[in-house]
């Protein structure tokens, strides 16, 4: 079975907006209450409450006078909220995410409907008394609707994210085709090498283009009194700038990932440690603005849909220090050095172009080590007197010196 998510813009009426606000509030309150109960239970017993134990609290809360308003909320929304909390706990203990945090009414609001949502001609029918909501259906929705997530952005826009299940499986993964190496950076967002030519894609710097406007809006917001209507209006204006930056970034990343996955069968990237890189306060804002993690996710699912493969090499692989011609490795390569000449073969290198070629070669070597047949374009990926990493799956020489 295949699963696809389609995001639609919906336009609720004022009365429907009020109903959705009540659903958002109920879901948010129940999430915070259940999270607090789980924390207290863990402190007392050393174990957190499970999904069944948390859902068992709901009938009691609906009968109490202080929380009787929970009965007005669609019951499956609250149960889906419980499932999301339990999943957040599992991700935390598995090391995939940080500890669940309490939700605020000041940020983005969302609720999940696990069933009984119907997609009609130009509307989305939401259960729980909300009814049909006008929607902009920009593409046909085929398959069984599994879950629908209704969300409200800080700018006041409403969206419905529809998860659809269709028959069939994804194509079988094949590596028979062009292999592309990508070096991600700040000055040039991506430098690619496919064995024949090098291409550079400049960084649009979305946040920098709106920085002056955003600063002005945030200064006005800071001068407003907390809780006033003028502060709400100023906050909405600042949120619109952030939304414009986010939309521009996602549009660029979608278009570039679509182009690269259509032209290549295998894409090789570095497994970058972005959280560690943003500790450099001189580059933190520029690195965060790039969206490297989002770009890698886009590449992964688009390659999977077409039967391609994404290869991530070790972040300590010396892609910048290694000569792509003779494989000589220099000891140091400061960040300000953008071009260098190999001391061994005297080949002059552009830092990013050389890194892209080495990333591609390392990705091919990893696939061949796993026994995967890969077309290297007729070139020799590693010479017979190459580095010891030829016989191993992981990269050999790390860029960072070993800890003493």
Say how many strands there are.
14
Give the CA-based shape.
globular
**Major sheet size, sense and barrel closure:** 7 strands, antiparallel
As a whole number of angstroms, the C-alpha radius of gyration is 26 Å
Task: Give the fraction of residues assigned to helices.
Answer: 25-40%
End-to-end Cα distance, whole Å, is 50 Å
Question: Treating each run of at least 4 consecutive H or I residues as one helix, how many helices?
Answer: 11
- Provide the succession of SSEs: EHHHHEEEEEEEEEHHHEHHHEEEH
Poorly predicted regions are 378-404
Q: How much of the residues is beta strand, in percent?
A: 15-25%
Mean pLDDT: 87
Strand order, sheet with most strands: 2-6-7-1-5-4-3
Query: Helix/strand-derived class?
Result: alpha+beta
Describe this structure in words.
The protein is of the alpha+beta class and 404 residues long. The chain is built from eleven helices and 14 strands. The chain has helices spanning 14-45, 51-55, 58-63, 75-93, 206-209, 211-222, 229-263, 274-277, 284-290, 292-306, 351-369; strands spanning 2-11, 109-113, 118-119, 123-126, 131-136, 144-152, 158-166, 179-184, 188-193, 198-202, 266-270, 309-313, 339-341, 348-350. The strands form three sheets. It has a seven-stranded antiparallel sheet with strand order 2-6-7-1-5-4-3. The radius of gyration is 26 Å and the shape is globular. Residues 378-404 have low confidence and may be disordered.
Mind sketching the topology for me?
Blueprint lengths: L1 E10 L2 H32 L5 H5 L2 H6 L11 H19 L15 E5 L4 E2 L3 E4 L4 E6 L7 E9 L5 E9 L12 E6 L3 E6 L4 E5 L3 H4 L1 H12 L6 H35 L2 E5 L3 H4 L6 H7 L1 H15 L2 E5 L25 E3 L6 E3 H19 L35
Helix pairs in contact: 1-4, 6-7, 7-10
């Amino acid at each position: 079975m295949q699963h696809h998510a389609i995001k639609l813009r919906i336009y609720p009426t004022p009365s429907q907006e009020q109903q959705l606000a009540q659903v958002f509030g109920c879901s948010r309150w129940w999430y915070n209450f259940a999270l607090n109960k789980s924390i207290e239970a863990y402190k007392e017993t050393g174990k957190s409450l499970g999904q069944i134990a948390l859902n068992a609290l709901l009938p009691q809360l609906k009968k109490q006078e202080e929380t009787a308003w929970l009965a007005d909320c669609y019951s499956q929304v609250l149960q889906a909220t419980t499932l999301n909390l339990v999943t957040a706990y599992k991700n935390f203990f598995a090391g995939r995410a940080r500890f669940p945090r309490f939700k605020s009414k000041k940020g983005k609001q969302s609720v999940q409907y696990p069933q009984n949502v119907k997609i009609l001609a130009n509307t989305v029918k939401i259960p729980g008394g909300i009814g049909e909501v006008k929607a902009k259906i920009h593409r046909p929705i085929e398959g069984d609707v599994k879950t629908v997530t209704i969300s409200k952005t800080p700018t006041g826009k409403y969206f419905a994210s529809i998860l659809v299940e269709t028959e069939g499986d994804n194509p079988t993964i094949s590596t028979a085709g062009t292999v592309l190496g990508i070096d991600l950076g700040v000055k040039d967002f991506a430098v690619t090498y496919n064995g024949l030519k090098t291409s550079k894609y400049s960084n649009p710097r979305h946040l920098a283009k709106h920085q002056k406007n955003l600063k002005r809006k945030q200064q006005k917001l800071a001068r407003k009194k907390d809780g006033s209507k003028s502060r709400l209006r100023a906050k909405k204006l600042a949120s619109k700038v952030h939304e414009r930056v986010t939309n521009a970034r996602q549009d660029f990343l979608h278009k570039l990932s679509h182009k690269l996955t259509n032209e290549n069968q295998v894409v090789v990237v570095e497994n970058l440690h972005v959280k560690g890189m943003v500790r450099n306060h001189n580059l933190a804002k520029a690195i965060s603005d790039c969206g490297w993690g989002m770009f890698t996710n886009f590449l992964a699912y688009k390659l999977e849909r077409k039967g391609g493969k994404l290869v991530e090499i070790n972040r300590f692989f010396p892609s910048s220090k290694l000569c792509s011609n003779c494989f000589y490795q220099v000891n140091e390569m400061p960040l300000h050095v953008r071009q260098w000449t190999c001391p061994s073969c005297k080949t002059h290198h552009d830092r990013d172009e050389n890194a892209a070629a080495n990333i591609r070669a390392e990705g091919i070597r990893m696939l061949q080590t796993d026994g995967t047949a890969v077309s290297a374009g007729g070139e020799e990926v590693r010479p017979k007197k190459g580095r010891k990493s030829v016989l191993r799956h992981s990269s050999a020489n790390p860029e960072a010196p070993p800890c003493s």
